[in-house]
Amino acid sequence: MTRPTHDWIPERHLGVAATLSHADDLIGQIGNLLFDYQAQPGGTFNLRELPAGSVSRTEVVHVAPIPRKVSLLVADALVALRAALEHALFAEVEFLEGGQLDERAAKLVEIPASDSYKKFDEWVRKRAKNGPPSLRAGSELVRRIEGLQPFQRVNEPHSHPLARLTLHTNHAKHRTPAITAVRLAAMYRDDQLPRSIRDLPARPEEPIRVGDVIAETPLGTKVPVTLFPTVGINRPGTDRWPVLMTELDEISWWVRTQAVPRLIAGGDPPEPALPARYEISVGQEDERAAIAAGSMISAPERHKQRLGAATSRPGLVDMVGQIEDAPSVADITAWAEQLTDEEVLERMSRLRMTFTYEPEILLRNAEVLAGMRDEVLSFAFDDDPAKAR
Fold it and tell me: What's the CA gap between 134 and 129, in Å, rounded?
């Protein structure tokens, strides 16, 4: 079986695939730091109950500091993503102009981020005299750049990925690295289990600070709740604090699957798509083959899988341990630990949630868990044949 070789990418643009891979690697490092931060034994923040008249208030008393390297890596990753766009544009302009540009023209080669057609038209006009002909009004390359502009998103140009990328990178380059903070993405009472994440009430998009009151209950009443802390990133100049990995995911996905391919090919993104990453830490004799062998699973996706699996493993052990003829907890735990993150999530996906007594679903779940019990028994036997005696 032969792998696709991305013939739609000219030789002059192969370096852009490496830049995108580098950006994904940086985001992967961010994910690793965030996972360790969020999984720390003491948690990301601490709470205490304080009586206040007839109610008890749940107040934040400590927020664990986020490693500074997170902000620095975020800035590096976003700058790398912007560089992928700028490098692709520069390589295309030099190709169209037939060689190296003079210094005056080279300084005018950049990707704008215009939130209105008027501003984009001004950008084009500034290149009419000294800019390269390929960046003048009516050119094919200008048409491609225009299609990527934030004003194409009529209702919310400021939320366009290019607008966000430019906002973050300008701030990181000229002012401070990315600003991150712990925030509470969601919470619910354990006696009011939501049917899905979409049913959770929206939480304020703001950092958690010492002294914040996150809940009030009648004095003397215990109400167990489940909290979903996360790390947010501030969009410079705004009071927005979107989830950090979601922001990186949306921007990096757009650059890799939409912006770069459209800038290079001029139309709908061609197939096969660029991989999220490939091996760039060693020299490649055949760069196209290395790109074709790359992974389509991005760093944000891997991070999401890792968090999901870390949450699901204990639950999987508990559920298998409750069925008839269950193996020992030690054997179930050992089996769950040797599963990959993808395997844990796949097994959890076999189970269906039920909010009422639905015999068919309960029976189906029992059959699925019995199958997992048999997996554990087989694993334990392979690991220690003496257990089968």
Answer: 12
